[in-house]
Amino acid sequence: DVLVAAARRAFAVLDLPLAERLARKALDEGGGTAAGEVLWRALFLDQRSYEAEKVMARLADLPMPDAQRGEIAFGMAYILFWGQDRVEDAFAALGHARAEIADPFWHDEIELLENVFWTLLGETRRAAEGLAGLLARPRLRPRTHAQALVLDGMLLCHTGRVTEAIDVLDRATEPISQWVHEVPWVAETRWAFRTYALIFDGRLLEAEAEAAGFYAHAVETGWELPMRLSCALRAHVGRLRGGVRTAARWARESKRQYGRQPLSYFHNFVIGELAHDEALIGAAAAAAASLAEADLSPLRGEALFQPWVELARPAVAAAGGDRAKAIELAGAAADFARGQQAVPFEALALHDVIRLSTARTAAVVTAADRLAALAAACESGLVGALASHADAAVRGDAEYLERAAFSLAGMGADLMAAEAFARAATVHQHEGRTASARRLRTQVALLLDRCEGATTPVVADLKAPQLTARERDIARLAVEGLSNQQIAERLVISKRTVDNHLHQIYGKLGIGGRADLAALLFPDDP
User: Fold this and answer.
1) Which of 331, 382, 386, 358 is nearest to 457 (CA)?
2) Which end of the chain has fewer surrounding CB within 10 Å, N or C?
3) What is the 3-state secondary structure (H, E, C) of 4-55?
4) How far is CA 498 from the centre of its chain?
């Protein structure tokens, strides 16, 4: 009993080696299912599923009450589904437990876990219907209800109801904290999907902070699962913000932590994200190799995350110079996402059709129409912004393109904003408004300056007048409200030099003076 209690304490602080050693000793000394429950959890969290399965086999024939039998059945299902990708066997284990256990509360938990599995398999309609029935029951055990809230938040996020998702996940925070020592992975899932919901709502700066907080928490625990997942989240946010080299570093760090472990959960979609980042950097061969690696052994049990890999395909094709193939793959990615009711992913893929195209083709018009329908049917700020950009691109309207660009820039989506400004600049140029075209080309250059060398077809050939490093410094200080004399003192140059630089800046940007500068430059800077 002392060893079991000590093992539980070690597990509670995620000291997995100590928890394993104490629980294994307790089991050897007759600790039975109490010791076995701690041991399988420690092995499972350490991604040693085959060893955990042996522990389960050792416990299976022991006499035990329904509560312990339920925990063992759940453990076996977790191991089979996540640890070994044996999907049918995992469902069979739950069916066997349902037949053996009389306690109705455990039947609720079994049904909940089945819906979790359906969700991760990408069967979101089936999972949502099952979860709705479960949540409608008048009395759910607190642990079941807490986990059901997290699953509800996952489904709402994935299907584009992001405001509701954030609300539900916030409401789940306190209840799930009561059970974190029994199902710690559920708390980590809540944190991850809250970050995704912020991304899909277009609140990229908040998502960036949330992902950074998740990573700090992961470092504090030392647990590999949140470490890997939080690094992947930082890569996702970084790429959507436009920081493609930073995103690639986070993706590589996540990949590095997997080592050579087989059947590692989240592994494939991490490599898919790396492929996407490498493509935007212009490392076409590396991107193609990463994507091929991601396709080697996709896990059925992580189909919910496959849209991230599908979104990488058009970027990799574009980096390789095959824009027509890239547009085709973007359409295929949108159709894949639609099959999962994954509205934000479908919107991102349809937007890629727009981003990759330079002409008003039938595919572009169809993508814009689908985006408009998605924006009207969901509450995602990101989807709304993408639909506005697509509509303006189809119209070829410079004013609307510029509005869409400022909206994207305000969200922190610098690379997408640069592309929208680039399209607006091209329209202005074709229509003879050279000053406006020059101003927007410079805006593109300023945004790309924050995108770490990112390149996409829309901006690759754009000739934009560049502000020098000194001009950028002076422009930033002017936006902060410093007078010309204060800028001169700050930079240890003459006021006349500042005057001359500002005159050059206004000319390059095609604006009349300082009053226009703050609205034009660095719209999301503090």
Assistant:
1) 358
2) C
3) HHHHHHHHHCCCHHHHHHHHHHHHHCCCHHHHHHHHHHHHHHCCCHHHHHHH
4) 43
Residue 497 has a CB neighbour count (10 Å cut-off) of 15
Give pLDDT, residue 464. Answer: 57
Which two tokens mark 21? 């050693």
70 neighbors 102 (Cβ within 8 angstroms)? no
Mean pLDDT across 420-431: 92
The CA-based angle 89-92-97, given to 5 degrees, is 130
Longest dimension (CA), the chain: 89
Closest CA to 84 of 263, 225, 261: 263
Q: What is the pLDDT of residues 500-510, one digit of tens each?
A: 999 988 887 76
Residue 526 has pLDDT above 70, yes or no: no
Average the pLDDT over 442-466 and give the result.
78
3-state helix, strand, coil in the chain (%, to 5): 80, 0, 20
Q: What is the 3-state secondary structure (H, E, C) of 78-144?
A: HHHHHHCCCHHHHHHHHHHHHHHCCCHHHHHHHHHHHHHHHHHCCCHHHHHHHHHHHHCCCCCCHHH
Cα dihedral 431/435/440/444 (nearest 10): 110
What Rg, from alpha-carbon coordinates, does the chain have?
26
Q: Which residues of 307-331 are buried (b: 16+ CB within 10 A; e: fewer)?
A: bbbbbbbbbbbbbeeeeebbbbbbb
Distance CA 421, CA 415 (A): 10
Q: Quick one: pLDDT band at residue 350, thresholds 50, 70, 90?
A: very high
What's the rounded Cα separation, in Å, for the pair 459 and 511? 22
